[in-house]
Write a structure and sequence with these properties.
Blueprint lengths: L9 H26 L1 E4 L16 H13 L3 E5 L6 H14 L2 H32 L1 H13 L9 H8 L3 H25 L3 H9 L4 H23 L1 H14 L5 H10 L3 H29 L12 H24 L4 H32 L1
Length: about 375
């Protein structure tokens, strides 16, 4: 376990992971107890109370000091850092008092919208720069320089350009991802294996056939891994945008809870964001395994076609839910209801394919 770049067994990795989590929780709990202040059964007198105006002020203050010195401790106040137990106990309150589920779904929807536009635009712009020398010469250097732009400093401009609604939040998030993804797409195009390109050229493939059979699989197979890296950045940007415009979302909820000194609830929301980010990361891993199976499986397994078809249906339904409101004045409720039914049917197809895939992998 102490060798340089040594490998841990599965049991060792699981044991050390649990021990590390327990150690961090213990340190968190210890620090919270150290920063806690005592809660006393004492209430200071209101010196502006008319009933106390005829009393001697110095005597009143002296009596108050004696009462404070003799006050008994009845507990602790965790104002700076709550304990893990207080954070867990905050979730029922957040659900009933602060509509946690509503804010979480709102933030997830904005996050996915921002990802959608960032992916579409980065593939289009990155494809032009990566494939066509004219655009590469004109825009490759300026696009690379955009990575050094402090995105958080542009919040005022995005509020001016897009207003204070959800459109501003989606545009801000999409731009924050876009400046990183365009150079990545260009780099992935350049990393395409020459042996594959030479093979298609030898076989007499057209430009579109080379694009479809070589470039698109090569770029997309690495693109999902690049998207995973930006998961944490995407949540940072969406929280910043929601704090600026307190109309809903987890960022808005964090802002108002912090204003009311609800530190236990603030930490609970932060842990929820981390949990959502982990699920989003696992989703990208799952999509990479199912849409690009040749990276993970040596043989073709049954059920992959059903799974891939279901995934494409889900992605298509989501794309329509994002794009249709831009062109058609369609009721939002009916739109989401229709998309939800299509997605449920697609999930059923995915589950059926997963069962076939599991049986196929077990047999091999």
């Amino acid at each position: 376990m102490f060798n340089l770049q040594g490998q841990l067994s599965r049991t060792q990795s699981l044991t050390l992971g649990i021990a590390g989590a327990a150690l961090l929780i213990g340190l968190w709990w210890l620090l919270a107890e150290m920063l806690a202040v005592p809660a006393l059964d004492y209430r200071a007198p209101n010196l502006d109370d008319p009933s106390l105006q005829n009393l001697n002020r110095d005597s009143l203050l002296l009596a108050d000091s004696i009462q404070l010195a003799n006050a008994k401790q009845v507990g602790k106040i965790y104002k700076i850092l709550p304990t893990p137990l207080h954070v867990l106990q905050a979730y029922p309150k957040l659900t009933h008092e602060d509509a946690l589920a509503k804010h979480a779904l709102h933030s997830i929807w904005l996050n996915l919208n921002g990802y959608f536009w960032a992916i579409v635009l980065s593939l289009f712009i990155g494809g032009l720069i990566g494939f066509i020398p004219l655009f590469n010469g004109l825009f490759s250097k300026p696009v690379d320089a955009l990575r050094y732009l402090p995105i958080s400093a542009l919040t005022g401009l995005f509020m001016l350009w897009f207003g204070l609604g959800d459109g501003m939040k989606v545009a801000f998030l999409a731009f924050g991802i876009l400046v990183y993804m365009i150079p990545v797409v260009v780099q992935r195009i350049r990393e395409t294996e020459n042996v594959h390109l030479q093979t298609t050229h030898t076989l007499g493939a057209t430009g579109w056939q080379t694009m479809r059979s070589v470039y698109i699989p090569s770029v997309f197979s690495k693109f999902t891994e690049d998207l995973r890296v930006l998961t944490a950045i995407s949540w940072t940007y969406i929280i910043i945008a929601e704090i600026l415009n307190n109309t809903g979302g987890l960022g808005s909820l964090i802002y108002w809870l912090a204003r009311r000194d609800k530190t236990d609830k603030v930490f609970a929301v932060l842990l929820l964001i981390i949990f959502i980010g982990i699920l989003q990361d696992r989703l990208f891993v799952y999509l990479d395994k199912r849409l690009f199976p040749y990276k993970h499986y040596k043989t073709k397994a049954e059920g992959l076609r059903e799974v891939q078809t279901g995934i494409y249906i889900v992605l298509g339904a989501f794309a329509l839910a994002v794009l249709l409101p831009l062109f058609i004045n369609f009721p939002a409720g009916m739109l989401f209801q229709g998309a939800g039914l299509v997605i449920l049917a697609a999930i059923g197809l995915i589950l059926m394919g997963e069962m076939k895939l599991w049986k196929s992998l077990q047999s091999t």
